[in-house]
Amino acid sequence: MKSTREKLLDIAFDEIYHNGYANTSVDKILKKANMNKGSMYHFFKSKKELGLAVIRERVNEYIVGKYGALLTYEENICDEMMKLIKNRNNFDFSCGCKLNNMMQELSPIDKDFKEALEIVYLKFENIIEHVLDKAVAKNEIVHNDTKALSLFVVASIEGCLGTAKKSQDGNFFQTCISQLELLLNSLKK
Amino acid sequence: MKSTREKLLDIAFDEIYHNGYANTSVDKILKKANMNKGSMYHFFKSKKELGLAVIRERVNEYIVGKYGALLTYEENICDEMMKLIKNRNNFDFSCGCKLNNMMQELSPIDKDFKEALEIVYLKFENIIEHVLDKAVAKNEIVHNDTKALSLFVVASIEGCLGTAKKSQDGNFFQTCISQLELLLNSLKK
Cα distance from A20 to chain B (closest Cα, Å)? Predict the structure, then answer.
């Protein structure tokens, strides 16, 4: 059975994802968790502490869980990366990206959130950079700035997910991301 | 002198941009406008009506004002487009894109906002598609799906602006968007 702390994090993660941080109510989280304020404050002293833990644990797990597999690929690296990027089984396009939503809402208004989110985002970029470096080392692609390219790969994933979200329609994501594939294919030897 | 209605729109546009729609207070807008609720309700029956007018007028003007110039280009179309995309004089990278911010916050939660924002976003995409079609017609680039490419150009602009916003640093935008240029250059004849 999940601990009380884990249950609180699960519910808070879900509430923040669906409503945004500002619109997330601690009372609603407590009601869903069937818990009172005192029990929550034993684990998290404030809504903000709960939000930061959601980022450091749940959002982080989500990104590493989805993209970490890329680090094990040894062949057809770019094609496999694109396959994983395009694979959106059970993805909720109408709500968008769990990481980007929080970043766009919170980075400009709170330094602690900005820093916590940046750490996760940087992990995402580093995974992609590592994969691109390997593709270069294995002579799959030619590129002299995999740092810039990794920034762009992540930014365009977020941009394409945003396009689907604005229309509440996942087809836009697939059409849009096909052009990232075109860029990667143009770099192939 | 600006009319009362225009003044309200200017202030509301600024408040929504800096705080998000949910966190925007009508009372604060009225205070800044030196106006009472009755005078505002003469023009806008609710916060939502004011928000919709901000999208249809201010956000729309902003996008058409920045990107509409592209429609007049007849030579070096892709290079000129990239120049305009990269030109971010006085852009507030820490707050991000006026259109994308509202889209990401409001599209999933309100149908009227979603529709109003989609109209502006579609206008943005249509301008880019028109420019790309012209670049194909003039034999600058080869591409068989300028619709998908226009979606991607806009999505990657939004993604790159988001990357800058998450770090509160415009340099990320320039590094990131350089890779869109790489894609366009790869399509040149």
Answer: 8
Write out pLDDT tens, residues B84-133.
999 998 999 999 999 999 999 999 989 999 999 999 999 999 999 999 99
Class of domain A52-186: mainly alpha
A38 exposed, middle or buried (CB, 10 Å; 0-12, 13-18, 19+)? exposed
B41-48: long-range contacts, CB 8 A cutoff, minimum separation 24: B43/B4, B43/B5, B43/B8, B44/B8, B48/B110, B48/B112, B48/B113
Rg, chain A, Cα only: 18
Eight-class DSSP state of B72: G
Q: Pull the structure tokens for residue B23.
A: 């966190």
Rounded Cα distance, B96 and A103, in Å: 11
Cβ atoms of B141 and B135 within 8 Å: the answer is yes
Per-residue DSSP letter, A108:
T
Interface with chain A: mutation pick from B99, B179, B185, B187, highest number of A CBs within 10 Å = B179
ipTM value for the complex: 0.95
